[in-house]
Amino acid sequence: MPRFLLTGFRPYLILTLLCACLYAPGLTTLPVFDRDEARYVQATRQMLETGDFIDIRFQEEPRYKKPVAVYWLQAATVAMVSDATATAVWPYRIPSAVGAWAAVLLTFAFGARLLDRRTALLGAALLASSLMLMLEAHQAKTDAVLLAATVATLGALAHFYVAARRQEPLPATKRWIGGMAAVFWLALGFGVLVKGPVLPMVVVTTTLALVAWDRDWRWLKALQPLKGVLLAALVVLPWAGAMVLESGLAFFTEAVEGDILPKLISGHESHGAPPGYYAALMVAFFWPASLLALPALVAVWSGRLAPGVRFCLAWLIPAWIVFELVPTKLPHYVLPLYPALALLTAHAVLAAAAEGRDVVRRRWPVVWYGAWAAVGILLALASIAVPVVLGDGFTAWSLPAAAAAAGAAAAGFILARRQRPLPALLAGSALGALALAVILEGVVVRASDLWVSRAVHAVVADLAPAPRPAVAVSGFSEPSVVFLLGTDTVLGGGSVAAAHLLDEPRALAVVEERQETAFRESLADRAQALEALATVEGLNYSRGQEVSLTVYRLGPE
User: Fold this and answer.
1) Which helix (H) or strand (E) element contains residue 537?
2) How far apart are CA 510 and CA 17, in angstroms?
3) Does residue 10 form part of some domain?
4) DSSP 496
5) Of 365, 464, 469, nearest to 415 (Cα)?
6) Are 467 and 438 part of one and the same domain?
7) Can you tell me the mean pLDDT for 17-26?
8) Are residues 382 and 400 in the same domain?
9) 501: confidence class by pLDDT, cuts 50, 70, 90
């Protein structure tokens, strides 16, 4: 890479352009996802509708699982570019896209301090193009924003650690708390407001690992912990206090007893998996950057005495073990550890390329390369098959998506087998990222059977343009249908939909076929007046269940 590209603002510009190319496709075209994204955006909409920015609710149900920061960020962006009545989801996604971009830039900034600018630029680019971060950048949830807070917090911690190990003097400050120490505590407090204890856990495991490894804790004094804890508390406590005034201790009781403890005790909400789950899925969710990730981890262990490498290992390994031991597992839980993985991968690959050797001089990596290539082949096949099986037929978007995915698999595998690690990683990552961008922009959105709520909304909007009476939905209670049809949507069984039609004859009812009998029986004699206006069929992917929904209206008696 030309040296001038590594100086000044140029790496930040390169990474910004890369993020724009990866995160803009699909951001405005992908429908709202069930269930987490739909719950977040609906709760945010209700904040805007009611003007209550403290209490978090989904319809009338308290949503006391995650703190408030992401809801506030979403509300701010919606207020700036849209309004609460709109059904477009992309304004709610802006904080996630910006969070992903910020995480990438911060990975470069702090990675340059830990290692060097060339490694930091490659590592940040690998992080930006990973499947997991691309998915999170396209969803209005907490995880991309949490990642930005994580990199800011761990990056500030790394600043003090590396300075101590390299015996660099820290600049004196006359301020109440030093600049980088303030970054650490402010980012930590913000991370708590985003997703509760996740970021503190990563900070604690990283710090304990470094202290135990080096048998030295004195460098932590530069963080000014007494002042810092107070600063972090000033970030968190105003909302926490307002929440106590609003609902007593209900939020914190529900968050601990209904969300945190169940995840620690067993596989919460059917999301249990044995240890090794995240390691097994890394090849897919860190793809395409995962091509050399596992060999890189083996290779960097020999260089663990270097402060930058040691810090990244302490960031990655202890917290990863904690996540593997917690019974409840979802793929995105380990996203806060991906920046360390990306930097270590870049470090090992560049070191191997500089010496003209393979990352690991062993035979076993070929199995990993094969698994990596299989992910690309599966993506290529899915790009063609998904619109045909779950949509309206073949789409031209499938061709570049499949070609790029298959090309990535072939180029990455062949070059890696030929012991050319840097060309393998660059070619595989570039083509793989291109494939993911095309899939998100043009392929997934055309799998129309997946977007049942979108189809229901289109039918309802055509039959009864807003403003209209509340719509009753029976047998399909996914949060996305509430977001698209409105906060006043009535959810329930067939009898609930029937009662709603009897109370509001001008209203529409959307009834899934499994609720048809209860719906008609509850209408009794009035069932003869039912008018079936349209039918929507598709796949409820949250339940893995085919659905058939009929839109009804009561005719005159």
Assistant:
1) strand 530-540
2) 44
3) yes
4) H
5) 365
6) no
7) 97
8) yes
9) very high
- ω into 520 cis (within 30 of 0): no
Helices (H), 215-306: 225-247, 250-254, 261-265, 277-285, 293-300
Place of tokens 């917290």: 319
Q: Which long-range contacts (CB under 8 A, 24 or more apart) does 250-259 make?
A: 250/62, 250/64, 251/56, 251/62, 251/64, 252/64, 253/64, 254/62, 254/64, 254/65, 255/64, 255/65, 255/66, 255/196, 258/64, 258/65, 259/65, 259/66
Q: Decide: 438 and 404 in contact? Cβ < 8 Å.
A: yes
> Which range of residues forms the domain containing residue 411?
365-448
Q: What would the DSSP string read from start to end of 188-200?
A: HHHHHHHHTTHHH
Q: Assess whether 374 and 225 both reside in one domain.
A: no
Closest CA to 30 of 448, 456, 457: 448
Mean predicted lDDT score pLDDT of the chain: 92
- 153 and 247 belong to one structural domain: yes
Question: Residues 431-445: what's their mean pLDDT?
Answer: 96
Confidence of residue 447 (pLDDT cuts 50, 70, 90): very high
| Number of domains the chain is built from | 3
pLDDT digits (tens, 9 = 90+) for 324-355: 999 889 999 999 999 999 999 999 999 999 88
Candidate from 444-448, 452-456, 500-504, 522-526 with smallest mean pLDDT:
522-526
Nearest one of 115, 57, 461, 132 to 306, comparing CA atoms: 115
For residue 555, the model assigns a pLDDT of 79
Q: Which residues pair with 62 in a beta bridge?
A: 57
As a three-state string, the secondary structure of 61-120 is: EECCCCCCHHHHHHHHHHHHHCCCCCCCCHHHHHHHHHHHHHHHHHHHHHHHHHCCHHHH
